[in-house]
Amino acid sequence: MSFNPTTARGTALSGGESPGRTAESGSHSIGVSQHGSPSISVVIPFYDEEANVQALDRALTPVLEALGRDYEVIAVDDGSKDRTLALLEQIRRRDPRWKILVLRRNFGQTAALAAGFDYARGNVIVTLDADLQNDPADIPRLLEMLATHDVVSGWRADRQDTFLTRTLPSRLANTLISVTTGVRLHDYGCTLKAYRREVIENLRLYGDMHRFIPAVASWMGISVAEVKVRHAPRRAGVSKYGLSRTMKVFLDLITVKFLLSFMAKPIRAFGGFGMILGGLGALITLYLTTVRLVFGESIGQRPLLLLGVLLIVLGAQLIGMGLLGEILVRVYHEGLGKSIYAVRNILGDASQTSGSAEPGQAGKGHWGSPPPNP
């Protein structure tokens, strides 16, 4: 199910700020930073975290102030039913650098982060959980590494969670994701990450895909680094995660792998399987035809005949699905003006370059648009 930020954003952003979006309304994209925008945006989703709100403010604010750079904190209240919103409003009245985005109901962490990305104005965007298991004091280390990379991900090397229900499934999932996507990280599930703005400004987040942002963004040829960060046991409140999310991760991984490998060429996925099945079916029917014509044996009652015909039909259907996929891909890219490549930068006069996409973006580090996320 796709997430539409125009319906998920509940009340307006506290303080009257407008989102830094592109004209592509209704999608999870971030617009170009405006003049006078903060250098750093910290996006934090909150859901029933009243016991941690004030402690998080006390831990986070000194760290950000010590950086000596303009910053903003985008607190996304994801439909909390406790006093989380009231406590956030208290912080907002005391510190106008805190912005509060209130969603109409609980849409989930991916939707909350996507909404925060829509309204973030900084050139660097940091994501952080509200439960204080990640130490805000690690943010400067991520920012230091971001000077030479596009994405820096936290790695909870000494994880303080239950081993059987949290740590072990997470390690298995991280290994599987790394092998499948080719982007090797020890800890995809760590929310503490830092991104250059251009990495996420064209990403669309759906479902529970926030943990796959480094893998999906790899389509653009980004560089990813990993930094060991501290991890503490949850001090208060109740964890929103459990074993039930493991299956969701595996299903999302299948989607990510398909998008990364076959988004621009679906015929190679469906058509490949179709040709294999159709070829097997053709060999079977050729064999049975030889048996009937050369040896004169009856083949009408043989199950192998039905299998051969079935494989040929399935092969034809898969090839047809691949062709339909090719048509849909062209409708997506051409109808919406999406690019099938990503440009980091253009040196020289781009207007004189034959076939250049969007010459007006010269020198702006235009990344193009990645394949959409499910």
What's the gist of this structure?
The protein is α/β, with parallel strands linked by helices. The protein contains eleven helices and eight strands.
Describe the structure.
The protein folds into two domains: 5-261, Spore Coat Polysaccharide Biosynthesis Protein SpsA, Chain A; 266-339. Strand 2 (40-46), helix 2 and strand 3 (71-77) form a beta-alpha-beta unit. The model is unreliable at 1-12, 20-34 and 352-374 (pLDDT under 50). It has helices spanning 5-8, 53-66, 84-94, 109-119, 139-146, 163-181, 197-200, 213-217, 244-262, 266-294, 303-335, and strands at 9-11, 40-46, 71-77, 98-103, 124-127, 151-155, 193-196, 224-228. The radius of gyration is 25 Å and the shape is elongated. The chain is built from eleven helices and eight strands. With 374 residues, it is α/β, with parallel strands linked by helices. Helix 6 (163-181) runs parallel beside helix 9 (244-262) and helix 10 packs antiparallel against helix 11 (303-335). The protein has an eight-stranded mixed sheet with strand order 1-4-3-2-5-7-6-8, with helices on both faces.
